[in-house]
Specification:
The structure holds two protein chains of two kinds. By secondary structure, chain A is α+β, with helices and mostly antiparallel strands. Chain A is built from eight helices and 20 strands. Helix content of chain B is 71%, strand content 1%. Chain B has a domain at 57-232: MetI-like (MetI-like fold, Orthogonal Bundle), CATH 1.10.3720.10. By secondary structure, chain B is mostly helical. Classes of the chains: A alpha+beta, B mainly alpha. The interface between A and B is medium-sized, with 25 and 18 residues.
Chain lengths: 351, 282
């Protein structure tokens, strides 16, 4: 539905996007996830046409729209702070795009009524946006875009100004609306929870390039770079280095855990330094009799989190975090024996 | 901050306002209900004759002419100020500050002196006529002043900043994202201007219009200097009552009438949903 071909964007010599290739399929919910300033919003704006690309091509539904004005692109944007027209009523806001496209009055009325019903705002059609709550404004902003039945809806951190509870509810609503309307959504956020819970695919953007693209599960379970592993979820990192090679696999040693692993060779060099990662939930307390695949940490502190407790312990200079569901009381520097499964290791290059 | 300290800090302003603004207005209000004797003295006897006299056709004609002048001067200021404000608001912040400072700089000079400056420019042997005839564009000098055109030029020039400031203020408050949202929804530049930008600046427009219209009908010295004494606006009428006819009570009644008209306009503005903040703390 949308295709970016080697898109770059400079602002006054500063490279914001450094060559992005991205294909987004019809009806998909794709999230562009990254830290602030990574260029994700700029990517979105090159698709809407509000920002011209420096080089590269943008295709929409197979047609080259690189040089097309935003007015002529069949996409709509939901802005971060909604950008509603405060001088107009809710209904006028929603009708605006249809009127600009010179749709017939009957069709405008029908579509506006339908969408007002969908967002359950029929009673507020004559209200001004600044009389509405944040969640209501959010829904009006969404309706104003959706009512045009665009090929693609672009959402620029639309939930960031709402409080946590409302955000969680809107996440569900957004996903439902997306499924119901079957419109392609491209969603920009810096919030990994939002990305994981709503997306069909996530593209992790860092420093103007895509680090990895894949389903939420792929991204979480098989991060390809240290950045992705760090950005999504929590990581316990262990230094490792390549020891030897053997028929398409590499032997690596993790000194802190005193273990040697055999992993598929990915053009590693001899002695190359790698990072082995275990997620906190992949580490647990071991029984005293277990001997293999264990290590000892010194208890530092715990963070109570309601249904589980996160425990921080020290292994040499590293802080290791893991999760337990048991109620345990420990004094500082007590040794805890922990176990892990060597198959759980995620191996990434250290740079 | 405790109340006493607050009061002490505010005292100079309060005293200033009382002595130089409130008392004179009260004095004028009282005067407007008195009568004048033949020598310009004041006879203290209550009467509303001065207010009835305002509706004499001679004076109504002055109001009508003032209204027409005020309207065209306000319109001219609006037509110049609006595009200028948009132009300024699209510049980088420090350029915006610079341009607005340039608009304000003339305020540092006495407006009477600036009006004399216009005489140098506009008169028959003035700079503009000399330039045009030296360039052989005209044969005979054009009359820019001692006529309605002179008054119009002088008033428009003097009052332009009063129009620019409130309009710039409201134009620069428009969220750029709202404009982008309109583009995104398919609005072309003209629609964006009339459907988004103009409605968002109604308060600025109304504010600028009041701030321009009221002084426009009151600035007697510009009318005197550039109009050649042929045209009389409300300001001249009031000035004449005080300085020429020496009928202070009638002059006071006219002044009070002008204040009431202003207050009615502000009231209308409030009724239409305007915010007082936008009137520059009016």
């Amino acid at each position: 539905m949308v295709k970016l071909e080697n898109v770059t964007k400079n602002f006054d010599e500063k490279k914001i996007i450094k060559g992005i290739d991205l294909e987004i399929y019809e009806g998909e919910f794709l999230t562009l996830l990254g830290p602030s300033g990574c260029g994700k919003t700029t990517v979105l704006r090159t698709i809407s046409g509000l920002e011209a690309v420096t080089t590269g091509k943008v295709y929409l539904d197979g047609i080259d729209v690189t040089n097309l004005a935003p007015q002529k692109r069949d996409v709509n944007t939901i802005f971060q702070n909604f950008a509603l027209f405060n001088t107009m009523s809710v209904q006028k806001n929603i009708e605006f795009g249809l009127k600009m496209k010179k749709i017939s009055p009957e069709e405008i009325k029908k579509r506006t009524d339908d969408i007002l019903k969908m967002i359950q705002m029929q009673d507020y059609r004559d209200a001004k946006p600044n009389q509405l709550s944040g969640g209501q404004q959010q829904r009006v902003a969404l309706a104003r875009g959706l009512v045009n039945k665009p090929k693609v809806l672009l959402l620029d951190e639309p939930l960031s100004s709402l409080d946590l509870k409302l955000r969680k509810r809107m996440e569900i609503e957004l996903k439902e609306i997306q499924k119901k309307t079957e419109i392609t959504f491209i969603y920009v956020t810096h919030d990994q929870d939002e990305a994981l819970s709503m997306s069909d695919r996530i593209a992790i953007i860092n420093n103007g390039v895509i680090e990895q693209i894949g389903s939420p599960k792929e991204i979480y379970n098989y991060p390809k770079t240290l950045f992705v592993a760090d950005f999504i979820g929590e990581s316990n990192k262990f230094k490792a280095n390549v020891q030897s090679f053997k028929k398409g696999s590499a032997l690596i040693k993790i000194p802190d855990l005193d273990i040697t692993l055999s992993i598929p060779d990915d053009n590693y060099k001899m002695d190359e330094s790698l990072i082995a990662i275990l997620r906190p939930e992949q580490i647990s307390i071991a029984s005293s009799t277990k001997q293999t695949n264990t290590f000892k940490v010194k208890y530092k502190e715990h963070i109570y989190n309601g249904n589980y407790t996160k425990i921080l312990g020290k292994l040499n200079k590293n802080v290791i975090s893991f999760i337990t569901y048991d109620d345990i009381e420990l004094s500082k520097n007590t040794e805890i024996k922990l176990k892990y499964d060597p198959n759980d290791f995620i191996i990434v290059r250290s740079k | 901050m405790n109340k006493t300290l607050k009061f002490i800090l505010l005292a100079p302003v309060i005293i200033y306002a009382l002595i130089l603004i409130l008392f004179p207005i009260l004095y004028i209000l009282v005067l407007s209900f008195q009568t004048s004797d033949n020598y310009g003295g004041i006879i203290y006897a209550f009467t509303i004759y001065n207010y009835i006299r305002i509706f004499d056709p001679i004076y109504l004609k002055v109001f009508l002419v003032s209204g027409i002048f005020g309207f065209f001067v306000t319109l001219a200021c609006l037509i110049i100020a609006y595009p200028f404000s948009i132009f300024v608001s699209e510049k980088k912040p420090h350029i915006q500050k610079l341009l607005i400072t340039l608009v304000l700089i003339p305020f540092l000079t006495n407006s009477l002196i600036r009006t004399y400056g216009w005489i140098v420019l506009l008169r028959k042997e003035g700079i503009i006529n000399t330039l045009l005839s030296n360039l052989s564009i005209i044969d005979n000098p054009l009359s820019f002043m001692y006529n309605n055109l002179g008054i119009f030029i002088g008033l428009t020039y003097t009052l332009l900043p009063f129009m620019i400031l409130p309009i710039y203020n409201s134009v620069s408050k428009i969220d750029k994202k709202v404009i982008e949202a309109a583009q995104d929804l398919g609005a072309k530049p003209l629609s964006i201007f009339f459907k988004i930008i103009v409605p968002s600046t109604y308060s600025g427009i109304f504010n600028g219009c009041i701030m321009t219209f009221i002084p426009a009908i009151g600035m007697f010295f510009i009318v005197d200097l550039l109009g050649g004494g042929k045209i009389m606006l409300i300001g001249n009428l009031i000035k004449n009552q005080f300085l020429v006819s020496r009928n202070w009570p009638f002059g006071s009644a006219l002044a009070i009438f002008l204040i009431v008209v202003t207050l009615v306009l502000v009231k209308v503005y409030k009724k239409l949903g305007g915010k007082m903040d936008d009137l520059g703390g009016f």
